[in-house]
Design brief:
It is a single chain. This protein is about 25% helix and about 30% strand. With about 110 residues, it is an alpha+beta fold. It has one domain. The longest helix has 13 residues. It is globular and about 40 Å long. The two termini are about 25 Å apart.
Length: about 110
């Protein structure tokens, strides 16, 4: 089972405070992104769902911290703080490859 498949059963209000049900396209994109991560990054990844209905991955690997959010199909929002890297951006993401800067950062952190 892909890590975000467990969230597919969530309905509106899943958090008790009116959160939106996760968007299937967001869960698909997050599963694709997760599959592209190096093994070490996958082990450090924490899948989650934002109250707005989009999937997100949080990675904590001392001294690095990263959050990747998938607000809609074809889009990734990136926030990374790591040695030599500070990045906050929004990029296209089609599920076929990690964005170049993220690929390099993940490779360097999880050798």
């Amino acid at each position: 089972m892909a890590p975000f498949d467990a969230f597919r059963s969530y309905q509106d209000g899943w958090d008790g405070y009116g959160a939106k049900a996760p968007l299937p396209s967001s869960l698909d994109a997050a599963n694709a992104f997760y599959a592209l991560l190096p093994e070490g990054a996958q082990k450090a990844a924490h899948p989650g769902v934002h109250a707005a209905g989009h999937a997100m991955i949080e990675i904590r690997h001392d001294p690095a911290y990263a959050v990747f959010e998938f607000p809609w199909h074809g889009r990734i929002e990136i926030f990374v703080i790591a040695p030599g890297v500070e990045m906050e951006a929004g990029d296209p993401f089609d599920g076929s490859a990690l964005p170049r800067g993220i690929s390099a950062a993940m490779t360097n952190l999880f050798r």
